[in-house]
Amino acid sequence: MDALIHLSSTTIFTDCSSSSSSSSTACLLHFTTTKFPNTISRFNLQFGISNPKFPKTIITHCSSSSATAIQVDNETAATVIDGKRVAKDIREEVAVEISRMKDEIGIVPGLAVILVGDRKDSATYVRNKKKACDTVGINSYEVRFPEDSSEEEVLKHISKFNDDPSVHGILVQLPLPSHMNEQNILNAVCIEKDVDGFHPLNIGRLAMRGREPLFVPCTPKGCIELLHRYDIPIKGKRAVVIGRSNIVGMPAALLLQREDATVSIVHSRTKNPEEITRQADIIISAVGQPNMVRGNWVKPGAVLIDVGINPVEDPESPRGYRLVGDICYEEASKVASAITPVPGGVGPMTIAMLLSNTLLSAKRLHNFR
Ligand SMILES: NC(=O)C1=CN([C@@H]2O[C@H](COP(=O)(O)OP(=O)(O)OC[C@H]3O[C@@H](n4cnc5c(N)ncnc54)[C@H](OP(=O)(O)O)[C@@H]3O)[C@@H](O)[C@H]2O)C=CC1
Ligand SMILES: Nc1nc(=O)c2c([nH]1)NC[C@@H]1CN(c3ccc(C(=O)N[C@@H](CCC(=O)O)C(=O)O)cc3)C=[N+]21
């Protein structure tokens, strides 16, 4: 190194095009040198000139100072919010409670999962939920219906599970085939067993001050749980939720509001969404658009919760695709103070919350504390 350089600020630009498996990162550095302390120089650098011995060293061509190599020691990186680890902790906590319940009152919680049609992703989710139930000691009951089955058949099974005392939670995997009326089916789940929290009565109570839902939807609950477990304050903060679906965006906004955040909702008709997200201390994104939230949509120090699960083509991956979130991780993680990865962020928490809701239901139905 020819000159000692004090980095005063860093701006990172990444090519976040959704399909590229490797992206190039350019870095605009503002720094002063000891040789030229009053000069602030700007250099356009290309990352990735890797010397494994000096991974943080960038080689560049500088004309206004004698520097040829820069040590980027103070590059800020966000805390990675490890949903996979937290979900494991929660599964262990749930397992302890389930075994205590079994020992003390001889009850084992049961979860019924209804899957209609043959979507591959839905089948995978259901399989993962069953596996998770097995690991904590929840009995799972799975019913599969062919794509062309009737709404009445599904309703009949829901009614059967409503009356079955060994079932404490009922989950209807979404989306349903288009010929079925989702409202009718979700309304049929009795609210005491609505572990997904999708029944309008549970959502209505979530929206009302002074009312308590019996269950909170798993994905938004998982987002808030991550914030709590990482000691991230919510009260008085500005939160922006991107997406307003019944299952994620809308209940996430309601939950943040219940936690005393000031909440804005961005959706597909929002003009200049980046101006709104840039004001946020906390962003929860649930859109389904790969890498939509760029680094420059994010206020420095913001906390980012990425719900999006988007498959993008990747010939190098064994499945031929890989999962990315709604947030351009590479860019945003350099601006944020904390961020959830995809995979390994919110996804595992959704399943952990489902287990936790099923335990809660069994405890409540059997008056077990
Ligand atoms: N990690 C997990 O556990 C889970 C992940 N997911 C993932 O989360 C994502 C969202 O799921 P879900 O809520 O069911 O999706 P929906 O398609 O039901 O909702 C998407 C929302 O995003 C909004 N939206 C779409 N495009 C834009 C845009 N360009 N700018 C701003 N807002 C936009 C839509 O707006 P509008 O209302 O105007 O149409 C809508 O409110 C998906 O990737 C899904 O796979 C879902 C559930 C659980
Ligand atoms: N009634 C109903 N309830 C749901 O909760 C529900 C639903 N329907 N329909 C579909 C969405 C989607 N969803 C996910 C759950 C876990 C992961 C998950 O565990 N993801 C892993 C990756 C899994 C992989 O690698 O394929 C992760 O993010 O690390 C993702 C998505 C629940 N949903």
From TrEMBL:
Residues 81-196 form the Tetrahydrofolate dehydrogenase/cyclohydrolase catalytic domain. Keywords: Hydrolase, Multifunctional enzyme, NADP, One-carbon metabolism, Oxidoreductase, Photorespiration. The keyword Disulfide bond does not apply. It comes from the Eukaryota. Pfam families: THF_DHG_CYH, THF_DHG_CYH_C. Coiled coil: none annotated. One of its GO terms (cellular component) is cytosol. Pathway: One-carbon metabolism; tetrahydrofolate interconversion. GO terms for biological process: photorespiration; tetrahydrofolate interconversion. GO terms for molecular function: methenyltetrahydrofolate cyclohydrolase activity; methylenetetrahydrofolate dehydrogenase (NADP+) activity. Residues 217-364 form the Tetrahydrofolate dehydrogenase/cyclohydrolase NAD(P)-binding domain. It catalyses: (6R)-5,10-methylene-5,6,7,8-tetrahydrofolate + NADP(+) = (6R)-5,10-methenyltetrahydrofolate + NADPH; (6R)-5,10-methenyltetrahydrofolate + H2O = (6R)-10-formyltetrahydrofolate + H(+). Belongs to the tetrahydrofolate dehydrogenase/cyclohydrolase family. Homodimer. Catalyzes the oxidation of 5,10-methylenetetrahydrofolate to 5,10-methenyltetrahydrofolate and then the hydrolysis of 5,10-methenyltetrahydrofolate to 10-formyltetrahydrofolate. This is Methenyltetrahydrofolate cyclohydrolase. It comes from Centaurea solstitialis (yellow star-thistle).
